[in-house]
Design a protein that fits this description.
homodimer, 300 residues, alpha/beta, Rossmann fold, N-(1-d-carboxylethyl)-l-norvaline Dehydrogenase, domain 2, eight-stranded mixed β-sheet, 11 helices, 8 strands, 52% helix, 3-hydroxyacyl-CoA dehydrogenase (chains A, B), NAD+ binding (chains A, B)
Chain lengths: 300, 300
Amino acid sequence: MTTPVAVIGCGLIGRAWTIVFARAGCPVRLWDAAPEVLESIPGRLRAMCDEAGEDPAILDRVTTHASMAEALDGALWVQENGPEKLDIKRAIYAELDRLASPETILASSSSALVSSQFAEGLAGRGRILVAHPVNPPHVVPVVELCPSPDTTPETMDRAETLMREVRQVPVRMTAEIDGFVLNRLQAVLLAESLRLVESGIVTAEGVDDTLRHGLARRWVLLGALETINLNAPGGVADYLDRYGPTMARLSDGAARGEAFTPGVAAKLAATLPAPARVAELSAKRDRDLTALSNFLKTLS
Amino acid sequence: MTTPVAVIGCGLIGRAWTIVFARAGCPVRLWDAAPEVLESIPGRLRAMCDEAGEDPAILDRVTTHASMAEALDGALWVQENGPEKLDIKRAIYAELDRLASPETILASSSSALVSSQFAEGLAGRGRILVAHPVNPPHVVPVVELCPSPDTTPETMDRAETLMREVRQVPVRMTAEIDGFVLNRLQAVLLAESLRLVESGIVTAEGVDDTLRHGLARRWVLLGALETINLNAPGGVADYLDRYGPTMARLSDGAARGEAFTPGVAAKLAATLPAPARVAELSAKRDRDLTALSNFLKTLS
């Protein structure tokens, strides 16, 4: 893999993407609007390699650049990680589309905005898409590829190919939808979890135990649909025959947006680890995610 | 752990419970209404130990009995795994309550029925609860403990203690709710997944990849609530402040019971592994769950 990549916006997500591309062999050209962010990059990337057990020699492929135009020079893929504000995104994409050579794909890490919102009206809107990672992408491989109505199929094909080449797992969508797939699944599960805790039926720890020592063990191996495919002798159709009505009844009774009340925050904060521990526990989470990723590779 | 246990109903779940109790040191007394099931038990248990890497010597603690009364003799915990039919459950519990000594706890593996439905009116209703496992419990440790309004707090305390002693992870609920916790969480996530596949926005494989290579990696380590607690610098309250409105909007737009249509079954069956492979893939799943369980123990 030697596709040259530009990473535009070098916060946490931009740096993690840099590791993804560099370890796969791509030359990676970095730019950030804040010069102090750009200056601190080499040290931060070395620390990330250290923590994730990546060979720091991969960073020889990484260069930093004083302007967006210079970073884009020769790049065939742009991974943009700017702020999730529509006016800023629009300004960035107008600039990217003007400066990048016509065959270059422009991919946004956006989670809150869909690309039609910032690609509309641009000459190169056919080469713009969202490539939404899970943070941090160098330890969690899934990437949602979401087109706008203007994104060309060729752009989607090239995006899917590149993501596989850099050893991520692309999930290709066919149309824009608010929240893509991942956050839609997360939202419904959170709503029901919050309601169960708010009602006092179970503690926050009880909800988390149900996932980490139960449901999520199957989902991390099989996903939710392959899981039910194995939960009835005749596969998924048999499952839906047997359990569909029960699952439908439970869904009909499930919590919705009203579960995200300010009141539930206090109840959760009372038992979850304190904010002062967030940094330490996030570092442990990333170490554990790396170990989990390595473990999962041993299974197939 | 030497609490004597009776396992009533020796299908797949009853046998897996037998391994759980026996490997923790409990004498386990088995009974099943079908004599041919009981006869085949020793061979099946040896095969399960083999597959799960358990020492077959634990089976020295397991005995089979010709009558329910004999199996109950001396047991302090009964794990019942009968069919999920209300009239059968009622008949079993009337019998169990009549035969078991008064200090014995009667726990049902039921997933579809709550215990008030079959404990109502019985003299010993205070000692009856649901202890709902994930199949198979010897490789997936979570157990939902759900009381009826009549279940005594002492019964719940003893149930929680015993489950910890046999190295399962009890999730203690305070009240009956349809589907308990696990199937409620599963139902909402399935509904949204089915709708996304039905609409053609993403394939079944795409939904499963989003979970196994993304969301579920965090959930299997942290659960859903500890996950969001680390997704904002100020912890869960900060997270709900920042992302609560988005998550509420996504939940409000989520699919419900209507997603469980017969039509979606054909679409799923077209891409998921064929029913002929269910047995083979289930065996692989259980091997992988065992390996995952061992891996997760190395993390903390």
